[in-house]
Every structure is written in structure tokens, then in C-alpha cells.
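Problem: given the chain below (86 residues), write out its structure.
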Amino acid sequence: MPVESSIALLSYPFVRTHWKEIAHGFKKPLLYIVTPQFEEQAQNLQKNRPGTQVEVFKNAGHTLFVDEPERFNELILRFAQSLLTR
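Solution.
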């Protein structure tokens, strides 16, 4: 991806709290998959928002579904299946 395109993707007009408000306002189960850089943030979300499942990919970079595709796909599948039994 060209640098200009990546900058444009990250240049959205929302403050960081915007995403927190969305996550806390979402009333359905939530799967939050992160790298170690965001592990503390994920644990806080799980603690403060019931119905949050956290998974940390310690050996992945930015693109979790590329770096650990089998694990990522299995998590998504199990999470989706769990929604059918609710």
C-alpha cells in the first residue's frame, strides 16, 4: 500500500474515545483480538464490558489474519458458532 493511502486510512475525524464509546455501547458479544501492544487495553475492556472475549496474538504483527491464519480463522469460527447457541 502506498504511504499516502495508509496515511489517508488513518486520518479519520474521530477522537480515540469515539471507539471506546462504540465498544461500550455495543450490547452484543464482542471478540477483541489484539497484539501484545494492546493487551492492557483489551483487559480493561474485558473488565469493564461484559460479554467481551479477548485474545492476544503474541507472535503476530499488524495483520493477525495473515501472520496466524489458522488460529485467527478458528477463533472467528468458534466465536460465530457461540453466537448461534445464545
